[in-house]
Write a structure and sequence with these properties.
The strands form three sheets. This protein has a three-stranded parallel beta sheet with strand order 3-4-5, with helices on both faces. The chain is mainly alpha-helical. Strand 1 and strand 2 form a beta hairpin. Helix 2 packs across helix 12 and helix 5 packs across helix 17. The N terminus is likely disordered. Helices cover 51% and strands 7% of the residues. It has a domain of 215 residues: Rossmann fold, CATH 3.40.50. It contains 17 helices and seven strands. The protein is globular.
Length: 371
Amino acid sequence: MMKAENNLIMNPRALESYLRFSFLAGDPGLFGEPLNYPAIRFSFEPEKTKEAYLEELTRILDAMLAEERMVSDAAFLSSGVDSSLIAFGIRAKKTFSVAYEEEAFDESAAAQRTADALGSEHHIVRIGPSDYFGAVADAMRCRGTPTGDASYIALFIAAREAAAHTDTVCSGEGPDEMFCGYPCYSRYYDEPCEDFWLKTNTIMEIGPADFPELNAYRGDGFLKMNAFDLSRWMYGNILPNVEAASAGAGIRIRTPYMRRELWDFALSLPPRYKADRTMGKLLFREAAQRWVGPEIAFREKRGFPVPVRKWMREEPWKTQITDTLSGESARETLSFVDRDAILSAFYSGADDGLWKQIWEMFAFIKWYENA
């Protein structure tokens, strides 16, 4: 398979890795380039008391927020604790949130309440399907590698809106990976089977999934998941999304949580202080109460949801997707995937969960044609 404009040979194993995880989780990359994901080394010894850990975390967050107040007074704001802590901690004068007509996906009301309590000048970025699909090509053009993460497009649109009001904005990436905030950590807490990280992350059952560094954790699926999130998910998807949105919007997006001291603290924190069967980011939430109060600190995580599954069934987006996945670029790169069967099963209603596979392939082709 060839990338015609630069005549580079595409690595099929890398493409299989993308289809399995929705980003380039393997190494090397699509054209043989090294991806250089960092090694993750947990160090839980010697253990401290919970109170000592909490005191240390509070000190680190205090220092982080004091430093950030010197350089930024704007923040992205969702309904969750991560962005709320930054917004309150830097005393943000301007905040930005995303809104959808689809109530099940819309976090803007909770974000507005937080902004009201903060007293910030709040901007709500309303995104409909035409806004979303209209931004895909530009967003993928800014990405050095493809991503099937649907939230990236929403971040890209939000960054462009923020750029009309400020030149620097803070974003809350980091705590979900550092402190095990994703729901899967709680879902599998009582049964941390060796490969739950794989079940959680796999989009398609295709290609290799051999990450030698995870072998160090043997049967501990919790630590495998945490290491995968901190290394490959963070540096292969989360941070590249931020960098691409920043470049595309012409705005500086700061990620305050990505401080070395906080990172090292997270690697030293025993898993029982990160998550249990009910919730993730346990100690982090406890520390955050100082700035945001208990209601926000312990609010259920919703992520950065996008109603793309619903929009994909609507015209003209349905036709755009099916035409894209039947076109020349898809035939050239995705010939080994039964795209027709996947599209048929999703659009007939036989398997609603296939939207992720379809979006992942659609996003890849848009990246392939626009990068």
